[in-house]
Amino acid sequence: MKRVNHSVTSEFVFLGLTNSWDIQMLLFLVSSMLYVASMIGNFLIIFTVASDPHLHSPMYFLLSNLSFIDVGISSAISPKMIYDLFKKHKVISFRGCIIQIFFIHAIGGVEMVLLIAMAFDRYVAICKPLRYLIIMSPQMCIFFLITAWVVGLMHSVIQLVFIVNLPLCGPNILDSFYCDLPQFIKLACMDTYRLELLISISSGFMSVGSFFILIISYMVIIFTVLKYSSSGSYKALSTLSAHVTVVVLFFGPAIFFYTWPSSTHLDKFLALFDAVVTPFLNPVIYTLRNQEMKMAMRRVFRHLMGYRQIS
């Protein structure tokens, strides 16, 4: 076989979201505000859960870890995207691109498992309330957390193994505002049909499989709540509606990216929504629809204000 010398691609050029300066300024303002708000909201949840003893329960342990993951997924994409809105030549190094892909898929895998763990937590709380504290023990919560990180890291590493040594010998333009596998693979100077199919099956199966597990779980829970109606039914359904909303917001774009056969402008909109809007909406959904969390935040705020006055 002949050896082919491939030039080393040292950087990639993003086409970005739009060429219109007015729209870029609007995107900068909106994205910056949502990013800052999502950071404040998610860190507030983490701090509140850690500070308030009333929230030291499996549900809030998992919720605080979900907030930590939202901080990670947003920070892996948003700062670079916001910075590039002011630049004509939007570039990222080869190493930076690989690191971004790694973190996006690792954190995405962790979030999928965490959402499944939260669904299991709600199933046990509603369907087996008398055994809740036994089943959802601290050891079980740690097991879910370790499993989530192991699955996320393995998923990301396996994806990178297939693409890190791809021969890149020409085009270096990505029709996006961040690095991800579908766009990256298309730059290889070889037939990538099988590889694209493999990546789509791997990421698509994980996304769709997790989504259906969650939907079936929530259907079972809702059926149980409706069957054994009680005074706590409305509260349970309200909590479930918040979980289902977060699941749809997270999995909707992910399933579209890896199961839709062709790239469209809708990809960019969904990617922007997934990177900027979803991490902002998650803390809003879990706090505004959760009376216990709102009360805990008030207690923490009053405690901090009282401590400041004493100081």
Q: What does the secondary structure layout of this molecule look like, with pairings?
A:
Elements: E1 11-14, H1 21-51, H2 58-84, E2 90-93, H3 94-127, H4 132-135, H5 138-163, E3 173-174, H6 181-185, H7 193-227, H8 233-259, H9 265-288, H10 291-310
Parallel strand pairs: 1-3
Antiparallel strand pairs: 1-2
Main sheet record: 3 strands, mixed
Global Rg: 22 Å
Strand content: under 5%
General form: globular
* Largest sheet strand order: 2-1-3
Low-confidence stretches: 1-7
The number of E-state strands comes to: 3
The helix/strand order is: EHHEHHHEHHHHH
N-to-C terminal Cα separation, in Å?
76 Å
Helix content: over 70%
Class by helix and strand content? mainly alpha
Top keywords for this entry?
311 residues; mainly alpha; 3-stranded mixed beta sheet; 10 helices; disordered N terminus
Description:
This protein has 311 residues and is mainly α. It is built from ten helices and three strands. It has helices spanning 21-51, 58-84, 94-127, 132-135, 138-163, 181-185, 193-227, 233-259, 265-288, 291-310; strands at 11-14, 90-93, 173-174. The chain has a three-stranded mixed β-sheet with strand order 2-1-3. Helix 3 packs antiparallel against helix 5 (138-163) and helix 7 (193-227) runs antiparallel to helix 8 (233-259). It starts with 10 loop residues before the first strand and ends with a helix. The model is unreliable at 1-7 (pLDDT under 50).
